[in-house]
Amino acid sequence: MARVPSRRVLVIMTGLSSYQIPLLEGIRTVLLERGYSVVVHLHDLSSAELPWQLRCLLTHGRPAGVIASGCVTAAQDEQVRRLVTEHGIPTVHLGKDLPGETCVRGDNVQGMAALMAHLLDEHGARRPAFIRGTAHQPDHRDRERVFREELARRGLPVDEELVIEGGLHQTPRVRALRALLSARPDLDALVASDDIAAIFAVDILAELGWQVPRDIAVTGFDNHPSATLTWPAITSVDQNLVLQGTTAATALLYLMTGAAPGEHHYVPCRVVVRGSTRRQDTLTTDDGLGVESVARLAQQHLSEQNNLMRLSRSLIDCRTPEDIRATLADELGPLGIRRCFLALRQDALHGDPAAVGGVEEGHSPTALVMDYRDQGSHPVPGAPFTSCLLPEALQGELDTGFLVVQALHAGEEELGHQLLEVPLGTSAITETLRLDVGKALRAALDTRELRDTVHELRREMEERRRAEAQLQLSSTVIDQTADGIAIVDSRARILSLNPAFAAMTGYPVAELTGRSITLLRLRQEGDTFRTVREALLGQGHWEGEMWSRRRDGEQSLARVSVSGVGTPGQEPDQYVVVCNDVTELRRKDEFIQHLALHDELTGLPNRALLTDRLTQRIALARRHGEPLGVIFVDLDRFKMINGSYGHEVGNELLTTMAVRLRDVLRDSDAIARVGGDEFVVVLTRAGGPEDYAAVAQRIIAQLSRPVTVDGHQLRVGASVGIACFPDDGGEAVALTRNAEAARHSAKSAGGGTYCFFRPEMTTQAQLQLQLEMDLREAVESGGLELFYQPKVLLPGGDLCGAEALVRWRHPVRGMVGPLEFIPLAEERGIICDLGSWVLDEACRQSRAWRDAHGRTVKIGVNVSAVQVQQSDLVKQVVASCYRHEVESADIEVELTESSIMDNLDEVSETFSDLRGIGVTVAVDDFGTGHSSFAYLRDLPVDVLKIDRAFIMNVENKVKDREILKTIVTLAQALSLDVVAEGVETRNQADLLASFGCRTAQGYLFARPLPAAEFADTYLARAA
Fold first, then answer.
1. Cα–Cα dist 242/250, whole Å
2. CB–CB of 132/290 below 8 Å?
3. Are 114 and 223 in contact (CB under 8 A)?
4. Beta bridge partners of 891
């Protein structure tokens, strides 16, 4: 719906000074003649925000147009422009130059130029100072700009030291002007941006002994009436303010017909030359007003002041808003006031902050307390209103004649507002009324609030007495209760507690008061305390069990309830903690539960608990795809000992056997007693059947040792049955049953041994254990042998090195391949000893070849990731080279790419140290790891050995050829050597040579050879 404006024009001003009054005369004359009312909003100079009354007039007052002469700050001016634009209100701006807006202002440029011509050309000034005006006012900025331009036009420099800030009513600005005048006696003129500043300056000059205009000329601007009342009178510029007002009103009427905004109107100014710039020989007596005019003005001012003083004295004696209303009704007529409306904010009138909140931000509901019209006071509506400035029934008053709106303040507090219809010839009436009525209303409200406060205090004292009696009763009940109760604040400090709470903690009441309740917290209870805090913040309550520490260090368990106390909807500022000690009840429950699930004699879990734990471990093993073993142990000859020596000896023997079983097992293994002399062990995180067999052997050995009981030396054995998950069963009961069946087989075999549920598993485990023992013997006694495969240069095939490959000649099984015993060595922890032997043997052979054939062969030695992690590989290399007098540069250490990527940081450090002592470092099986080539940038290596998987298909697979080319190119870019492994045909060798690969090894050149055969083939022939 389109906005329907009233026939009301809003004029925005910062006061009713002698500057604004002529503007309003011109505006009112034009608008009232054409049937428009005028509402003038006087902006409060102390307000930083745009007053709500002004926002209300712009937003809800439906003005037909707005004439804005400016607010206190540029930010407020911008808010006014935004509101009039948002609501489509035609607007004329006085004293502004705004692009796209209709503006009216005095031609300050022309006026200032004429003033400077008078001062510089007629008076002859050459060193003028300038006093600035209001920074956000364009006319003041124009005056300073023209001041500078006119000086420059005459070739006179602007001395920036002589340009000072205005506002000479402020003490710091006065000091600045005094300092300037004292420091620069060469000044000959003082140009002020307005007449008020010029008048202040004349007073300061007189104090310092300067004579105007003999010593210095002074000019102002705006032709303020006060400028004619000084001696000498101030030379100024008349902006023709009445004409500006009529021009603005006429331009607004034109805009209200639908014309487009944007036209700027400049009203000519004229220089009024007075005594402050005339030379001594031209001074006359007509510089100011005539004697009759001054007398008339003085008489008018005196009469006005007498009326205002009588009103002020009357308001001092008022004690209620009703007294104020009656006094104003008697005194407003002599002041020439035709209409007066006073409205007070509801929160100020009733002292009730809850009443705040209305249609405008910062505007509470308002009550009209004064309706003065037609020389009399009228009844006011009883209900408060939230409409714009006046109740609905009186809104028509805004559309009649001329009203001034101004906020009422008492200090920084806004009480309400006043609307006045006053004669324009004076400015003191509205300001005096604003101040005096505000003070009187504040005093009246304070008096009434004092009476209300006394009544409220009496009521509160009575309520407090009743509350204290109730609190005393509650305190007695709390002190007598058996539950522990404590009150803590938001920082967990104990404010008060009852004797029961102190008794539960072991601390005296005085020692706990004021301390943090976290003093009682167990370290492991941190998560519980965090849960409590989160529950209190979310629901305001928590209940559960909590462990705490007593003063003597003993732990106790309590059933605790914590509730927040405070204002609803806000975070509690206090908490009530109620607790009941349940430590003994918990211990009894735990003891009963322990008896139900544990063997009373040995303390081991019983069959029920074993079944539960085994079920859980089976679920984990199934989830992670891991093996699991169940060992059933039966003591041999126990029944005979128990029958011969009695149950007491038998019980002590069982207890000893249980302890030995615990000692032989790992913490991750579980053990239970399931019968008289029967035990079950659950093995987790073990390698497989051979590991189970090794554990079974340790159990048999441990339990077969003699034991002395009650002076009797006894010896028992053990029969052990083993079942494997998942092959021998997928459930706890089935695995236990099958392990027990295997135990029967071991018992039938004569005892002192073990059997798997499946016989072939027993044989396999025994073979694997035997192979492990043989391998250990071979490593210790030198039963291993190194073969050497040559590395050759492409394309010629000349020898350039060899790779050492370990072989095992088993005394029974013959030659055992590395694929069979190397994984066993890594699994059984033999790999470090094996690797040390290989390294030492390679160094020994290198020295032997050099002594026999006079030639050094660089030997590549394979190391495992375990060696890098568990041994000091660098020290081993140094020691072996030193022992056999071999250069470290003759040794090449090889580690597979997958092992490197599993331990990249640790491997990088070791490789760096190896290279530091001169050892060549190679990445074996390159291209098989699931990794990015990016790691090669930082990995300290010398050689890439391409895995044979890429070589075997290079002749018939295009992708493999491209991969090989890429690897060789990458190695060359990183300055790395490349060795191709598994070369078996001449065509493969030729292709590799064409790609730039310079080194190869494989069956095309030779299989791995014993040391003697390698020497005969390559070293003796070369020699």
1. 12
2. no
3. no
4. 859
